[in-house]
Design a protein that fits this description.
By secondary structure, the protein is an alpha/beta fold. Helix content is 17%, strand content 32%. The chain is built from seven helices and 27 strands. The strands form eight sheets. It has a six-stranded mixed beta sheet with strand order 15-12-16-20-19-17, with helices on both faces. A five-stranded mixed beta sheet has the order 7-4-6-5-8, with no helix packed on it. Strands 21-24-23-25-27 form a five-stranded mixed β-barrel. The longest helix is centred in the C-terminal third of the chain and has 20 residues. The protein is elongated, with a radius of gyration of 32 Å. 38% of the residues are buried. The chain binds adenosine monophosphate and magnesium ion.
């Protein structure tokens, strides 16, 4: 038996970050920047007002109050999106809207609320003939002025290579005027189910058959991890079917099969895996999900890595979680595949009868600043609903025979 860490190390050694691609900014969500992003201009490009009001010379407003307003002549009106030729000279002001560039000569903006136009008179009031405004408060220089380059200065490295693009990073790229971005390519992951018993959902149930759930849960996990699943369908347990299906997945960056790797298994799957590629069969010290196969298939001048997951639905998801997901992160150039962990008080007994590492499906709740963990019912590796109900995995270490109620246990957060 090998440890979870050893299995993961051996697997990850096989993967590399994929080459970059250029794509529309919004399509790159969740992907990793392949280059530093440098600002070609200041943001904002020009000093502008953060309030609707009047652009003034601060010195002109000195001593202004409700009882003795300072009267300024309004020489122009300026909306966001335009620049004004007008220059604010002593005794004058420009009526100005949020986002509009500060006109020459002005160094402060007096908001409407601090003038005798408290509600604003509405757009066009200047044109309609309101040539004077009364300022009711002293403005200090720079008041309500957002300086050019307040957010970003030309030449700044705004985002670094290796950053993952989330909503804020995508917004920043757009603010720099970028329509496309260079990111590391997403891996295409071929997913193949094997077994004579499997039916495609949608087909009528028949005696002895079950629906193929692994292809669905694993494909969804691939998507969640940032990969692109490519379902190859179901291969029956014959050499021909399996060979054809396997070969149809060799253009992918990674091939995942489920079932056919456990000891008592019908040998066809193993035979084909061994014949078509290079493959190791491992027993990993974990529950659920002990049997695991890993290898590579030659495809032209490439070798396509192959992860062979156990067939039991929970085992299959758990081994993907521990080995497939980190591999996808590595291909994406992304760090941080590790789940966040918290310590929780176990509310029931979690057994570990044969010294493996147990990943028990748990529901974590928080009361009075303390986490509590309960199990999601049957922990059978065939009980997929135990996964569906879980928001965490309670981890029992190899050398602990049981977590008793009231004991602390480490829980990995799934959401
Ligand atoms: P095996 O690894 O072939 O021995 O399969 C172990 C168990 O997982 C058996 O009960 C199979 O019926 C079940 N199983 C295998 N493949 C799938 C699948 N794609 N979806 C749901 N259950 C499966
Ligand atoms: Mg089978």
């Amino acid at each position: 038996m090998i440890s979870v860490e050893e299995a993961r190390e051996r697997i990850l050694a096989f993967f590399e970050r994929l080459p970059p691609e250029e794509k529309p900014v919004l399509d790159a969500q969740g992907q990793v920047l392949a280059e530093d992003v440098t600002a070609g201009f200041d943001i904002p490009p020009l000093a502008n007002t953060s309030m609707d009001g009047y652009a003034v010379r601060a010195a002109d407003t000195s001593g202004a109050s409700d009882s003795s307003p300072v009267r300024l002549r309004v020489i122009a009106e300026l909306a966001a999106g335009y620049v004004s030729e007008a220059e604010v000279t002593a005794g004058t002001a420009v009526r100005i809207m949020t986002g509009a560039p500060i006109p020459r000569g002005a160094d402060a903006v007096v908001p409407f609320e601090e003038t005798d136009e408290p509600e604003g008179r509405g757009a066009g009031s200047f044109a309609k003939g309101a040539p004077y405004v009364g300022v009711l408060k002293t403005a200090s220089a720079g008041a309500n002025v957002r300086p050019a380059g307040e957010d970003v200065q030309r030449g700044d490295i705004v985002l670094r290579r290796g950053a993952t693009l989330g909503p804020a990073q995508i917004g920043v790229l757009a603010s720099l005027g970028q329509a496309t971005v260079r990111v590391y390519r997403r891996p295409v992951v071929a997913v193949l189910s094997t077994g004579d018993e499997l039916l495609e959902p949608g087909a009528p149930l028949a005696p002895g058959k079950i629906y193929d759930s692994n292809a669905y849960s694993i494909s969804a996990m691939v998507t969640e991890a940032g990969g692109i699943p490519k379902r190859l369908g179901i291969a029956t347990d014959t050499i021909e079917a399996l060979t054809v299906k396997l070969r149809s997945g060799l253009d992918a960056d990674m091939l995942i099969t489920s079932a056919g790797v456990s000891r008592g298994d019908y040998d066809v799957v193993k035979d084909v895996l061994v014949k078509e590629g290079q493959i190791d069969f491992w027993t990993v010290r974990m529950r659920p999900g002990k049997p695991l196969a890993f290898g590579a298939f030659p495809s032209g001048d490439r070798r396509v890595p192959h992860l062979g997951l156990p067939g039991n639905p929970v085992s299959s998801m758990m081994t993907f979680e521990l080995f497939g997901r980190p591999a996808i992160y590595k291909m994406l150039g992304k760090s941080g595949w590790e789940r966040s962990a918290v310590r929780a008080v176990a509310e029931e007994r979690i057994e570990n009868y044969d010294s493996r590492r147990v990943y028990a499906r748990a529901v974590l709740t928080q009361r009075d600043g303390q986490y509590y963990a309960t199990l999601t019912g049957s922990q059978s590796s065939g009980a997929l609903t135990s996964m569906a109900l879980a928001n965490a995995l309670a981890v029992v270490p190899e050398d602990i025979a049981a977590i008793e109620p009231g004991d602390e246990v480490t829980c990995l957060l799934l959401a």
